[in-house]
UniProtKB/TrEMBL annotation, chains A, B:
This is FCD domain-containing protein. SMART domains: FCD, HTH_GNTR. CDD domains: WHTH_GntR. Residues 3-70 form the HTH gntR-type domain. SUPFAM superfamilies: GntR ligand-binding domain-like, Winged helix' DNA-binding domain. InterPro entries: GntR_C, TF_FadR/GntR_C, Tscrpt_reg_HTH_GntR, WH-like_DNA-bd_sf, WH_DNA-bd_sf. Gene3D superfamilies: GntR ligand-binding domain-like (1.20.120.530), Winged helix-like DNA-binding domain superfamily/Winged helix DNA-binding domain (1.10.10.10). GO terms for molecular function: DNA binding; DNA-binding transcription factor activity. The keyword Transcription applies. Keywords: DNA-binding, Transcription, Transcription regulation.
Amino acid sequence: MSENVGRWLRDEIENSILSNEFSPGERLDEMVLATRFGVSRTPVREALMQLDAIGLIEIRPRRGAIVIDPGPHRVYEMFEVMAELEGLAGSLAARRLDKASREAITATHSRCEQSAAAGDSDAYYYDNEEFHKAIYAAGRSEFLEEQCVQLHRRLRPYRRLQLRVRNRLSTSFSEHCAIVDAIFAGDGDEARRLLRMHVGIQGERFSDLVASMAVR
Amino acid sequence: MSENVGRWLRDEIENSILSNEFSPGERLDEMVLATRFGVSRTPVREALMQLDAIGLIEIRPRRGAIVIDPGPHRVYEMFEVMAELEGLAGSLAARRLDKASREAITATHSRCEQSAAAGDSDAYYYDNEEFHKAIYAAGRSEFLEEQCVQLHRRLRPYRRLQLRVRNRLSTSFSEHCAIVDAIFAGDGDEARRLLRMHVGIQGERFSDLVASMAVR
DNA sequence: GTCAATGATCGTGTATACAAGAAGTGCTAT
DNA sequence: ATAGCACTTCTTGTATACACGATCATTGAC
């Protein structure tokens, strides 16, 4: 419980949204949240204002807060931006790679290999996250890293859905291999290109996304 | 006065920070702000929480809010990300250009030409902003546009400083010309490359930035 | 029977009160 | 004279109270 209640609540509610416990479009009643977490309305309001500022919810004046529903098209746009930022991170990583980052990438990469081989999509989902974070960190740009982590968080639910698609695990892992090769070879342009392809959702992957979002 | 006081205050304080009325490192006293704007502490706190979530200020538990001082290196990183996003916007604009967007770009571009010819750096500063916004809009990606506008806002003070550098006006405008040509020619890759160069601050432009930040 | 208007109820927006912690100041002791 | 400790004061964090606006339901009229 992070020192101050407002911030703790923000993380708590944010997680609830990102794990789909509060679904898009759902109304967030201040009083309900307050009693649920055993605090007064004040810190709840502060948490909601922050989530509004981040763009996770929308507070309509005098009409309460609702969880934002991005819709397939907007989610596509978010992946598009994510792809671009990851591409940049990859190209920076290739240029600036040092021993520690190299080891971090290798470690997370091999963990991905294991969970992919085991066909464990939940484990892969987690290891994949760590792998990408290792690349952000290797880019040595704090601001870029923050932006990547933030967007990555917001796209988490959709990424999870995507991993359920048949063969996506092994495809994803082989893409990882090529990315690691490019970064370790110091080939920034290639790393950028591969990451853009890996993260972006072109063609059939977009229709997979739409389909998985529809069943929700 | 945007319907609700908290949101109005957020914009107000945000502008004050971005126009350097509150300088980096400065402590923002809730009570002082409250009396200054003639409201109670509650909406002030809500505004501050939002600015904290956006990353403009930092609220340290029980020790108040201070304006974040990015420092030259971090500002450089922000420009680096901005360059990447603008590059994406440019490449999308080249692909998706329609009549309305084309006219918007042409209009803002020629306004830049006039203020550049007049050597009016303040006017150019404004027209330049509109020109870039026209490109974001032409990309037809709402999310990307929002991200660009937000980052653009945060980098405003530094961009303004940059325009004061000798010859920057005419250099900037000739870069604009090439960018417009690439977009109108439908050459997405070239538009991306040119915008990355235009927005990023490599080499001597970085030292110019550091120098201009030091005198503050 | 349907639509509109008015009133009741519920929930948000702002203010204020109270509690707890941090920083600064003054006093005392070495 | 200086360092350390305690006390005071100031500011933030949380709760609560009150007011205003929105929504919904009920009633009346066409």
